[in-house]
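tool_call: predict_structure(chain=1)
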Amino acid sequence: MEASDDDEHVILVCTNPDPIESTENQNEEILVSTIDILICDLPTILSFRTIKVQAHRNRLIEQSLYFRGLLSGSFSESCLGYITIKWNVGVFMQILKHMYGCPLDITPDNVLPLYEGALYFGVETLILKCEMWFSEVFSPKGFQSTLIKMEDLIQIWKFGLDHASDFILHLCVDYLARNFMWAMHSKFFGKIPYDLLLSSVKHPHLTVDSEMHLSDALLLWLESNMENLERPSKAEDNCNEILKQIRVGLLPLWFAAGKRNSLYFRQQAEESLDSIFRPLSILPMGSLDIFGYSDLQVQHLRIRLTEYLKKVNLSGCPQITSAILLLSVIPSSYLTDPMQKKIIKQFFINSGHPIRDECAFPQQLLKTFTFEAVQEVDISKCGRLCIEHAVDCFCKSFPSLRILKAAYLLNIRTTSFLQLLEKCPLICEIDLTVDITPLIPALVTVLSSSFKYIAVETMSFNEIGSPLSNITKLTLEGRTDVCDLGLQYISKFCVSLCHLNIKGCISVTDIGISDLILRCKKLNSIVVCDTSFGINSVQALSLAISDDGNFSSLHPKDKHLNSVVSNLQTLHMGGCRGICESSILELMSRAQVLKSLCLRGTELFDQALYNFIGSSLEMLDVSNTEISGAALSYVIRRNPHLKCLKARGCRYLFQEDSCIEKRDSSFSSLHEELHDELGKMCRLEEIEFGWGFSSFSLSSLEPALMSLKTINIGLGGMLGEDALRRLPAICPLLETIILHFQVISDIIVMNLVTSVINLQVLALCYCFGDISNTSFKFPMQNLRKLRLERVTPWMTNDDLVILTQNCRNLVELSLLGCSLLNSDSQHIISCGWPGLVSIHLEDCGEVTANGVSALLDCIALEDLLLRHNGPGLRRNFVFNAALKMPLLRKLSLDICDASEGDFDIPNNYADRCFLSTLKITRCKSQRCAFNLPVSAPGARRRSVHVETLVLVWNSSDLIRTVVKERL
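tool_result:
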């Protein structure tokens, strides 16, 4: 709006040091009015070096504190008709337009210049507009990672410091604290100023999925900034100040153990391990004597819950108990209030005895906090957590909970747990995975067994409450407590079930699976690998009418294909030997929308693939089948979006009597057809091949392998030295390399470990060639899993030390055939890799000849295999290992290594160990007998000549089975 003509004018002289280039300008100076600025093209005006603006004196005085003091005060400029403006001309023009009522759009690109200009010229309306923009964008509802980037946040913080703006500083701290999980994944995270980072981790709104995520982020920041901090003593103080914000008592065991060698985190790691093992070793299961802790220690035992938290990740924390859950959701004042303190203390005492009625989650507490934003909770491997208490806590404090992961917990009976979850009606995804038992029917012959479990409590279906109608995804992988009656319960009460994973559930039958399929008509994903899935289940898939199909896009002639199988997107039935050829043919001819298909180890034949009508496959596993390359090419041609192809063990993929050396015309034709289709149609991320795969294959597939992350070459494949050398160039994104029976050399291995920068998994198994310790004298800091099986017979303790120095971050180690290792190797392994979760040592010299002591210092182990490493294992080794390794689930031993000729088998729950599988093997060359454990009170012990004793604990029930493995 313009003032009247009688208003006095003033000329604002702006000098533009970098005018926008223009060939039309004959003069370097222009005189414009404020009307010109409002209506003219601003870039045209900014093309002049000197811009004179005729403005109204009163308007400037009204809108700007700067001009009010300048033009209405006692300054000499108040009488002048010209005022020189020393400011960015483009920004000033925008401010001037705002002062004259022109709408102004605030963006991340212009907010700081505008805000700074508004502060300098005292334009209060623009200051308010910028601050409102900051408040909206930095608010929880306004969070958008695309709007405010990490580099912008850092710049805004520095701006706040430069201008002493507490408003900006507080906004930045709160924003970073609330969105810490987003920030830690930014490449600019290491550039966050120390004061901003420290303030955010101290902030009550700090929101992280777990203390492990916070620790990882802070360690990453310290590694990037320690050299840039002030003098060494100050740097050390800063490091300690920021790390002490971590609640070390809530770290996963494997993480804390693995950080024992960390330069910055060693002290915190030891404190964490002390906090973890103190309750594990002394206090009753589930209880916690918090009243013996200081206020600060108690605060550090509380899970970090905020109103913005969406995911709570407690996986791998054996120290988590009902007491810690309760402690985390109650107000801190309850710990000082006498009445509330008494209730809490009684609960903590009783929580060690879940069978007591009075140990239910205390209803007398006046208040527990509610966290509406929490949608996912992961309590996997929290073996000491009372599930009844946990569910009580979740239903009260996490009313919006939708995803619950409770994998590797043996104190859960499947159907009993589902009954408990009726209290949490919004839950739609549940993961109850446990380790797959070695007792896969297709792989072993069961000689004798005893099963003891209760699949469903005595409560009848009619007595149970409303259906669990919101459960759409249920994972029960490996659970031996699930039988047909359990499937009946699931099908009756999980009426919305879409995804079911019962892989390795050996107690269910084909009839039981088929009954479930007939009831659950919304199924679009089913994983039944290594079960009794067979003819009846296939018929059920074809007969059941889907309630969830989308058939609008089908051709009219296919409208009748509205069965469950026609709606499946995932079908995994690997290892299911009960499926005949006609059943597979029926499935392939009706599964039209499959994205993921696993037929590993089935009676798959070519005609079934030729009958496959789908065109949406992204994953296909035909490993260990008898299909041909021509049939596989047909499927690939129809499925251009294929990302994962597994075809190991397919002996007839390139003609039955072919071998790598034989290059007849038909063989070459099959190669060319298959590789041409793959190279032309697909962009693969994972491949597994064996028989017939060669350097020719790799060259032909180059166009399809640029995005490859995993390559697994097995028996019958032969890449050759040249192909292996070119592998990093062909597949620059590789993360996993697994090679069986390949010819390798030092040059090849060195090239792989130095060129594949993202390498996380390296497995060299039964490979030929001449490699030495030179191959492993290069840093491999990203490597997480290493398998060296029959390829490093020369390895000594000194070589093992070098390996620990160059592969510092290993979590899984497998060594086979390292015959020069001795008992000192234990100490090297436990000190070099204290955070290992899996160790396999077989035929490794005399590693266990003098017993096992140092190896037990790998306290985070979940999987331990010791075979043929020296007869030094005591009878009570199983008990000691389980006692010292609270996460140990799988233990494999050999009678040959028993110093007293046998091992004592502990009672799992009486001795409080959490083993799910114990496998004891005896060499075939020795025909000695060993005693089975007593299966029931009063039962007679008997000696049996066997190959392997397998004991499986699942859902509180023990399965003792003697099996003879097929060779």
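agent: The first helix runs from residue 34 to 39. Proceeding to next step.
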